[in-house]
Specification:
By secondary structure, this protein is α+β, with helices and mostly antiparallel strands. Helix content is 20%, strand content 46%. Strands 1, 4, 5, 7 and 8 form a five-stranded mixed sheet that branches.
């Protein structure tokens, strides 16, 4: 009799536990799918931003790692930089395109700001490195670069 009671009590608790878990799961789904737009969510797009300057060593020692500090220009208050850039290999050249996040649909103030980020570079080629830092586009839409050559010793 006592064993039957223990088994029945176990199944009763197990069924209650399943119902409780199901209830929490349903509540989570309902609240998780809420269309509550009170948070400050807005649209943005990514855009290449101009390089102002780059602090590059005069020479690289083969095998060593260096940090290149790059200063960029954010043209107004809608531009933000989150240490994001495109880094392309083109032979011995390295093309660096800093990427700005631009908030859409909000008023912007025309204050130009500069910020600096760093790029790690390990000297693993014996030829000189040619760094091309994006500086915008010319009148024909062609990319303009700040070009710096660094010999490897």
């Amino acid at each position: 009799m006592i064993n039957n009671f223990k088994i029945s009590y176990f199944w009763l608790n197990l069924c209650n536990m399943k119902q409780l878990i199901s209830l929490f799961f349903i509540a989570f789904l309902v609240l998780g799918c809420s269309n509550d737009d009170d948070y400050n969510d807005h649209e943005y797009h990514l855009e290449y931003v101009n390089t102002v300057s780059a602090d590059v060593p005069e020479e690289f020692v083969f095998g060593r790692t260096y940090r290149i500090n790059v200063t960029i220009e954010l043209p107004n208050s809608c531009y933000f930089f989150y240490n994001q850039y495109d880094y392309f290999y083109e032979g011995t050249s390295r093309l660096i395109y800093p990427i700005g996040h631009v908030d859409d649909g909000i008023p912007c103030t025309p204050n130009i700001r500069e910020t600096t980020f760093s790029i790690p570079v390990q000297a693993l080629q014996s030829e000189p490195y040619i760094f091309k830092f994006y500086q915008g586009e010319d009148a024909d839409g062609q990319d303009i670069f700040l070009t710096i050559e660094v010999p490897v010793i």
